[in-house]
């Protein structure tokens, strides 16, 4: 991985970590024992990943969806295609950031992950 | 096109070491920014201009025009097909196909103008390329500035890429990054890997249609709307996401693999943002074209071609709606006028003729048909008919105005696509004027006030209700659709009551009373919409409440039991089978069942849960879900009976009890 790619990935991880940290300040979570808190943090991170995937897929046309529909979810091809499609949706960064913020706001207010 | 590898082009591969990257950046900086570089060398190295480039641009424009023309052909064919296969429901005996053929011809004109509109930004790119000769140094400065000032996820794009890289300062780092991008841009199309590769290849080529970025947003909105009304696409999306979730829940997809997909989506989003900034603020496109020449240009052409297709598709959709609305107007008018006003047809024809060849064709068809019908009997329309015509005209005028307004906004926001925007605006406004004028005319035609003897028996009064709804529906304006339908139904009822004597004239006072009732009906609709909005907000709020304590839990249980009982009652009231209607399918049937039993806004997962059982119980195959059956879900004929078996009802109840 080239250094710039590594840096972007590191920044993304830090960004997601900061969102998770905000969620962990929710009244019903902040005083949980460390092991439960860690478990919750993993669930939040999983959920934010799900949010990113849903935000992208909801923006895809039928033709775009067909490009990834039958790829192996764990394959490098899937990640590459997801990256390419995300790059081609105008305004997707704003849209995704809003979706993340909505998720964080919900978790902070309700101390639980949306169903 | 034959693929040429980077090695064959004499270009480095994707996996450069950091030292090699730095060397390339230095090389690029020297070539771009060195004060010792002579202008002639700059031109030779970076901005090779001349006939080759111009011919390339022409090729791109030709490609675009070809794509748009192709799309226009599709639209034309589709419109004719529509005319052949879909007789208007309100007027089965009228040659609606003729009208729609005319509308199809009109769409051909739309496609042509769309092609002209799309050529404009391509020509603009050519001018842009000339300007880039001003100097690579300014380009690098502009790129660095753009990268620093464009924000994504709380940071500048430059900061996102450079965080952790040893730089003396951000501006210096972003300048180096910009040089790197320029240096790498030549590889991007062939390599497509790595950060810069992604920025340049993944996004730039997409955003290279940078002039159309704003327009693409409009297209996206259109796609969203289309997706909402495309049950099969919604089902595919739900299935796709569900597959990920299931794999993750069983840990078949590891957290690292899962994270890679997330980072890819965010990375792409950042790349797209950076791309838009660079393309918007710099001449990077010129560099990319210089490096990859025809390849990139061709891809730009494809992108523009895609945008052109989208333009054609969108305008075509609008045009189709207009055609449908015009057809509907003719149908409703035909029924309404049954025995009335030959002048209406002539006047509509005259009006339409004045709006240019495209609308002229459609309007001419309308005029001819209306004239034929009108010529059968009588000379006048009743006051009520006129009033309803006016209402329809107003609704249509509003709808047309909305289209025109939308097109105007698009035109103002899309540099280079003014041609298309202008044209669409003209179509929208002209259509609004045409329909509005027709209604107004029906209202004001001399003699109309005088002879209402047919009004009491007008079979089209109710038809006009459907017509108004049809217009709103055809133009995609749900509010207008509902308002039109309800208002016109009220009008129909009022008309029947207001005209008790079949051979008498309708007094002006009754006409005024009818107008008042129409206004009151509209006000009622507005109130109802507000109440619905309030109720939805209250429901949303209620959904967000987290039950605390036994009392609340008990109340929640009671509510759930009541909901289940209500759902059971609703299920019992359903027929034992549902016959598929035009455009319907198991997904839509599942959605309808859930709504009928109390799930106001079923999620795709809930719909899919019921849909699977519904298909299994009826031996309907869904290959994408691994469900086998004697008939494929995608090939179900109209009238196919879906049995609501006990298993189907049980599943529906389970979903209700979980909500």
Q: What do these coordinates show?
A:
The complex is a heterodimer of chains A (115) and B (659). Chain A is 74% helix and 0% strand. The model of chain A has no long low-confidence stretch (mean pLDDT 87). Chain A is mainly alpha-helical and 115 residues long. Chain A is built from five helices and no strands. By secondary structure, chain B is mostly helical. Helix content of chain B is 74%, strand content 2%. Chain B has 24 helices and six strands. Chain B has helices at residues 18-33, 39-45, 51-85, 96-131, 136-149, 157-162, 170-191, 194-207, 213-228, 231-249, 255-281, 284-292, 294-337, 342-353, 357-374, 383-413, 418-444, 460-474, 478-498, 508-544, 550-573, 586-596, 604-617, 646-658, and strands at 151-152, 155-156, 577-579, 620-621, 631-632, 641-643. Chain B is globular. Chain B starts with 17 loop residues before the first helix and ends with a helix. The chains are: A mainly alpha (115), B mainly alpha (659). The interface between A and B is large, with 56 and 69 residues.
Short description:
The complex is a heterodimer of chains A (about 120) and B (about 650). Chain A is an all-alpha fold and about 120 residues long.
Task: Briefly note the structural class of the backbone of chain A.
Answer: mainly alpha
Structural class of chain B: mainly alpha
Average the pLDDT over all residues of chain B and give the rounded result. Answer: 51
Whole-Å distance between the termini of chain B? 54 Å
Helix segment tally of chain A = 5
């Amino acid at each position: 991985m080239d250094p710039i790619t590594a840096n972007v990935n590191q920044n993304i991880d830090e960004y997601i970590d900061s969102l998770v940290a905000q969620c962990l300040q929710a009244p019903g979570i902040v005083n949980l024992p460390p092991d439960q808190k860690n478990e919750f943090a993993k669930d939040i991170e999983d959920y934010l990943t799900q949010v990113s995937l849903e935000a992208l897929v909801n923006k895809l046309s039928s033709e775009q969806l067909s490009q990834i529909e039958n790829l192996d979810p764990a394959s490098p091809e899937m990640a590459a295609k997801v990256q390419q499609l995300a790059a081609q949706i105008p305004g997707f960064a704003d849209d995704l950031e809003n979706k993340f913020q909505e998720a964080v706001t919900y978790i902070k207010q309700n101390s639980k992950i949306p169903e | 096109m034959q693929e040429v590898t980077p090695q064959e082009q004499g270009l480095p591969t994707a996996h450069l070491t950091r030292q090699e990257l730095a060397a390339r950046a230095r090389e690029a900086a020297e070539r771009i920014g060195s004060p010792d570089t002579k202008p002639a060398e700059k031109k030779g190295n970076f901005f090779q201009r001349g006939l080759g480039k111009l011919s390339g641009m022409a090729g791109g424009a030709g490609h675009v025009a070809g794509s748009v023309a192709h799309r226009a052909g599709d639209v034309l064919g589709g419109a004719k097909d529509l005319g052949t296969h879909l007789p208007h429901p309100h007027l089965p005996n009228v040659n609606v196909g003729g009208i729609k053929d005319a509308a199809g011809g009109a769409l051909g004109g739309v496609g042509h103008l769309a092609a002209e509109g799309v050529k404009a930004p391509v020509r603009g790119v050519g001018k842009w390329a000339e300007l880039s000769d001003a100097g690579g140094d300014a380009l690098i400065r502009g790129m660095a500035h753009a990268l620093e000032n464009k924000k994504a996820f709380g940071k500048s794009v430059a900061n996102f890429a450079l965080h952790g890289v040893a730089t003396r300062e951000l501006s210096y780092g972003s300048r180096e990054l910009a040089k790197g991008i320029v240096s790498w841009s030549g590889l991007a199309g062939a390599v497509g890997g790595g950060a810069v590769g992604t920025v340049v290849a993944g996004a730039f080529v997409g955003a290279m249609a940078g002039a159309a970025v704003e327009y693409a947003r409009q297209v996206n909105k259109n796609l969203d709307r289309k997706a909402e009304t495309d049950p099969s696409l919604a089902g595919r999306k739900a299935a796709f996401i569900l597959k990920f979730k299931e794999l993750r829940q069983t840990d078949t997809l590891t957290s690292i693999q899962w994270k890679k997909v997330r980072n890819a989506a965010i990375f792409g989003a950042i790349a797209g943002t950076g791309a838009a900034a660079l393309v918007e603020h710099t001449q990077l496109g010129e560099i990319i074209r210089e490096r990859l020449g025809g390849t990139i240009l061709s891809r730009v052409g494809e992108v523009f071609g895609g945008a052109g297709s989208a333009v054609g598709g969108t305008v075509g959709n609008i045009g189709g709606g207009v055609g449908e609305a015009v057809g509907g107007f003719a149908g409703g008018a035909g029924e309404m006028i049954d025995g009335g006003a030959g002048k209406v047809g002539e006047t509509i024809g005259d009006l339409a003729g004045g709006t240019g060849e495209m609308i002229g064709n459609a309007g001419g068809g309308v005029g001819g048909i209306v004239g034929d019908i009108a010529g059968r009997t009588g000379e006048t329309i009743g006051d009520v008919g006129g009033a309803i015509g006016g209402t329809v005209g107003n609704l249509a005028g509003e709808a047309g105005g909305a289209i025109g307004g939308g097109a105007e906004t698009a035109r103002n926001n899309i540099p280079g696509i003014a041609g298309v925007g202008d044209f669409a605006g003209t179509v929208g406004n002209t259509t609004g004027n045409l329909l509005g004028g027709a209604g107004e005319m029906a209202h004001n035609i001399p003699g109309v006030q005088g002879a209402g003897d047919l009004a009491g028996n007008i079979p089209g009064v109710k038809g006009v209700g459907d017509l108004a709804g049809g217009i709103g529906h055809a133009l995609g304006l749900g509010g207008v659709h509902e308002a039109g339908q309800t208002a016109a139904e009220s009008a129909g009822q009022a008309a029947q009551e207001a005209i008790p004597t079949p051979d008498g004239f309708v007094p002006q006072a009754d006409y005024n009373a009818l107008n008042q009732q129409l206004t009151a009906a509209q006000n009622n609709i507005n109130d109802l919409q507000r109440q619905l909005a309030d109720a939805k907000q209250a429901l949303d709020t209620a959904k967000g409440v987290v039950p605390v304590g036994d009392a609340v839990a008990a109340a929640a249980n009671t509510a759930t039991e009541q909901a289940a009982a209500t759902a059971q009652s609703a299920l019992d009231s359903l027929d034992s089978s549902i016959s598929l209607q035009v455009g319907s399918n198991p997904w839509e049937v599942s959605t309808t069942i859930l709504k009928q039993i109390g799930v106001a806004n079923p999620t795709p997962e809930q719909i899919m849960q019921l849909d699977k059982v519904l298909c299994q119980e009826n031996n309907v195959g869904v290959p994408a879900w691994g469900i086998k059956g004697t008939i494929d879900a995608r090939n179900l004929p109209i009238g196919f009976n879906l049995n609501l078996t006990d298993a189907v009802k049980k599943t529906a109840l389970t979903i209700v009890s979980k909500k």
